[in-house]
Amino acid sequence: MAASEGLSALNVDETQSRSWLDHMHDWVTTVDHKKLGILYIGSGLLFFVLGGLEASLMRAQLAVPANDLIDPKEFNRLFTMHGTTMVFLVGMPIVTGFGNYLIPLLIGARDMAFPRLNAWGFWMFFFGGLVLYLSYFASMGLYGAGTAPDVGWFAYSPLTGRAFSRGNATDYWILGILLSGFGSMSGAINMVTTSITMRCPGMTMRRLPLFVWMMLVVSFLMLLALPVLTAAQVMLLFDRFLGAHFFDTQAGGDAVLWQHFFWFFGHPEVYILIIPGFAYASEIIPVFSRKVIFGYVTMVAASISIGLVALGVWAHHMFTVGMGRGLNIWFALITMVVGIPTGIKIFNWIATMYGGKIRFKVPMLFSIAFIGQFLIAGLTGIMLSGAPFDWQLSDSYFVVAHFHYVLIGGLLFTVFGACYFWFPKMFGWMMSEVIGRWHFVLFFIGFHLTFTTMHIQGLLGMPRRIYTYEPDRGWAIWNAITSAGVALQGLGILCFFLAIFMAFKQKKPAGPDPWDAWTLEWTTSSPPPEYNFLTLPVVRSRRPLWDEKHPEDPDWKHE
Amino acid sequence: MSEAVIQPMEGSRWNRGRVGMACLIFGESMFFSIFVVAYLFYVGKSDHGPQPAQVLEFPYLATACLLSSSITAGYAVRSLGRFEYLRSILSLALTILLGASFIAFTGIEWYGLIYEHGLTLGTNLFGTTFYSLVGFHAAHVIIGLLMLSLIWVLLLLKHVKAEHAERFELVTWYWHFVDAVWIVVFTVVYIIGV
Amino acid sequence: MTTEEKDGMELPAPTAAPLFFALGLVFIMASLVTNEIFAFVGAVTAVWGALGWWREMLPVEHKEAVPLQALAERAPAVKPKSHAVEHLVIGEEGHRVRLPLEYHPYAAGLKGGFAGGIAMAMVGGVQGLVTAGTPWAAFNGFASIVMPLFGAAPPADMVSFHPAIMVAALAVHVALSLLIGIVYSSVLPMLPGHPRIWGGIVAPVVWTAAGWAAIGLVMPSATSGISWGWFIASQIAFGLTAGEVITRSTPIKTLQSFTLAGRAGLEGTEQTGSEEEGS
Fold first, then answer.
1. What count of other Cβ atoms lies within 10 Å of the Cβ of residue B114?
2. I want to staple A429 with a disulfide (CB 3.0 to 4.6 A). Which of A96, A158, A288, A503 is the partner?
3. Phi and psi of B53, rounded to 5°?
């Protein structure tokens, strides 16, 4: 924290070899959006491995009926930690990380609007995540009833009250999410402010890359939904520590109120997770179809509509709670309505590919799989939006299959695509196409073995969150296939990490523009200098690089 | 679709500070709205313990203090922008005094509620929702007072000058927001809920 | 465009203050579940971090000069491609996209749907007269599909006039007729061949076949009541009428048949020039 002017001691002599302590110092004190983006994504991947281990243990337990690999209390902790980790400690940081890294580069800026706030946000997220995992070690309480939280990732009342959750396990859940939530909120403030006020000359809102538009919608949803969760969690903390009665049914409080609050946050949350996936697809698919995105304005309008309509659908997670006919009908209808703009986007991606010259590189493979899988996920969602259908299948494996299809088949596939697409920019080395294809094939087959099959278990009536099941239910074969798929997914993810490792080892230079793309980040070196652009670019269209590469037919003649 | 004119982005009214503060205020509004919803949801549902009509009196003085402090805060910013340092210092001091009085009145009210009427956070649903909603508002007032006091000290030390008026204005935006929240709070607690 | 070659580019200086502030806040909150001592440690750390952060921002933002990239490492300027962009002409061999050169206004679809609806209703009335002696039988049958409770009523009800039922049936009929009319006006011009064949014959046959196949699944109680011959007749009546109205409406040319000047918005030059692939 030295307050020296001029060249700081760190940068004086670049040719001197720097110890790993110097590098650590760089990363720990950085306020640069690129480093913070990489820190976010890296931490997200670290927690991804932990969440994946939790899932693997669960699937090992469920692979055969009447198994006793994991006892029921541990199983409760596993599904709670798996869900909480994946949503809050993997999904949120990865989307924040890509947003942080790319938005200034895409709009021709040198950094985000509030660099130190950015750094604060990352460390809040990271330490918050550590607090959550501290629970495994530190929260032994009454009757050993501590250790990791076991109340489910949405922590329904009154189970989470002091009377029913002894020890500190639930408090760790609250604190871990509360603290890491501040990271996302500061990221959102940064992304909105940067996108609105720091665009390079010529970049009107109508020329903003779709990635930035969608991150604007995501940030709006974050600013709207995360404080709601914070408030509800503070209420729960008051209940547990100060004797308040917000959700205390024994004192007249209403447990369903928690559900309303949580899902008013929770539904926008899942859109916060998936819309960045749309953003990655909207950047990758045009480049690998060699065509401009179909219907730019419609894509923007659809994204905004999704963001707004998604605010009204939350109680479709609560059809079984008994809200009454009127509310059930409203939420069923509005949930169906939100499928319309989403469907428009799917049509637009397909229309972008139609008539294009498709290059089946690894990012494109993941994006094409995303389109089909997300479509299926959306359809099962629309099925579930019919309240009577949901009454049969709520809290069954059908719902689990649906949301994993969205989050893995939708979000994770596009995240992998984004990693292969932007890794060369971030680090300057190409990732191996061969290993990437192995990653894709193994993960694709594993994903479908697991989650396509899972719909069947759900339809056959298997509830979620059970730690075992009887052999005569007819579920055994489907569970076995589901669990087998996990092995292939694991192998696929190993390939992913291998590809990253080999990229750093083989050091195949990527150059500034390995994919022949069209947005501003591809004008910088790979990796970009800390200041991004030597001179701030001036743009005249949505594809500034296309204009420079094809001066005889620039985009601004047609936009 | 003419794009011949290239617009520079600087010089817009909505600079980084304003957009950032607007986002923060938006997020905080959502935070408060959940406590408001909880309060309204539980109105009339406490089946024992003190009830609002029995123990609450409309906080005329406190409200007057807080709302007028917004006016003085605005005046302080405008004075600073016009290089009228003395007026700025005086009106900012008045703002802080009025804000502190609001907190004092709230404290007095709470003292009475706790010791005379026996109403605490854990007494009944009214107590739970009242203290959390009014309490979080008061906490935000205190944070605002801290920021305003800091600026006041720096003004006295001549570290804050007219060119900082824009940054000072952002803090007053926060202060106006806290006032607006109070309007919602007293409507919900002292008018609707009684 | 000004370059900023100085001693380096000014960027916000790195600092660990936000980290300490975050750590402090986390310690304070973690003291709730660990030990009170963390609250003190956290408070000290948070204040330290906050003060450090304050000093980074005020009175002036602490910046440092980052040295510019070595010339060898900088990205070269973007080179124009050696090949030029090829422009497609509509109808050119291998051009796979089939866009309508002209389309019909929505108003035509609404009128077509309305007219088709009248034609269909007339067929329905004739069906009622022929099969049951009153014109209302077919309308009641239609209403019973959307209101199954009514469909369970005794047969005498099915042939008499019920005002409320008629209103319900009329509402659904008008809504669907107008909607399908708009769909026809949008879709028909895009299909090759003649709209009258598509709208008048093919669509009704396909629609009836799909309904016949699916009705057993969707609404088993209704299967016995529908006479498929009259059904197809009513659909064809709708299709032919709507198709006729739509085809007779004045088509509007799409933008791609305009000249470049026309597309750019210059008045008086919209007429079809060389057909260039547009935006």
1. 15
2. A503
3. -60, -30
pLDDT at B7 over 60: no
Does B57 touch chain A if contact means CB atoms closer than 8 Å? no
Give me the pLDDT at residue A142, please: 47
**Local structure of A265: helix, strand or coil:** helix
Residue closest to A312 by CA, chosen among A290, A340, A337: A337
Q: Please count the residue pairs, one from chain A and one from chain C, whose beta carbons lie less than 8 angstroms apart.
A: 153
Total residue length of chain A: 559
Map out the domains of chain B as residue ranges.
61-192
The dihedrals phi and psi of C253, each to the nearest 5 degrees, come to -80, 140
CATH number corresponding to B61-192:
1.20.120.80
Q: Which domain holds residue A520?
A: 36-531
In chain A, which residues have their Cβ closer than 8 Å to the Cβ of B32?
231
Lowest mean pLDDT among A315-324, A398-407, B68-77, C207-216: C207-216
- Taking only the tens place, the pLDDT of each residue in B124-172 is 999 999 999 999 999 999 999 999 999 999 999 988 888 888 889 999 9
* Contacts B41 to A, Cβ<8 Å: 254, 257
Structure confidence at residue C278 (pLDDT): 40
* Beta carbons of A535 and C16 less than 8 Å apart: no
Residue length of chain C: 279
Nearest by CB to residue A257, choosing from B8, B23, B41, is: B41
> What ipTM describes this predicted complex?
0.92
From C125's Cα to the closest Cα of chain A, the distance in A is 35
Q: What is the CATH number of the domain that holds A144?
A: 1.20.210.10
| Cβ within 8 Å, pair A179-C29 | yes
Task: Let me know if residue A540 belongs to a domain.
Answer: no
C46, pLDDT greater than 50: yes
Distance of alpha carbon A140 from its chain centroid, rounded?
31
- Determine the distance in angstroms separating the CA of B31 from the nearest CA of chain A, rounded to an integer: 5
The verdict on B11 touching A (C-beta cutoff 8 Å) is no
The answer, as to whether pTM is greater than 0.90, is no
Average pLDDT value over all residues in chain C: 79
User: Lowest mean pLDDT: which of B1-10, B94-103, C12-21, C83-92?
Assistant: B1-10
Q: Do C22 and A123 touch (CB under 8 A)?
A: yes
Q: Is the pLDDT of residue B5 over 50?
A: no
Tell me the two tokens of residue A208: 């903003």
Residue in the block written with tokens 């009514």: C150
Q: Looking at beta carbons, which residues of chain B come within 8 Å of A253?
A: 42, 125, 128
- The contacts found for A491-495 with CB under 8 angstroms, 24 or more apart, are A491/A442, A491/A446, A492/A438, A492/A439, A492/A440, A492/A441, A492/A442, A492/A443, A492/A444, A492/A446, A493/A52, A493/A439, A493/A443, A495/A435, A495/A436, A495/A438, A495/A439, A495/A442, A495/A443
Residues of chain A positioned with their CB less than 8 A from the CB of B114: none
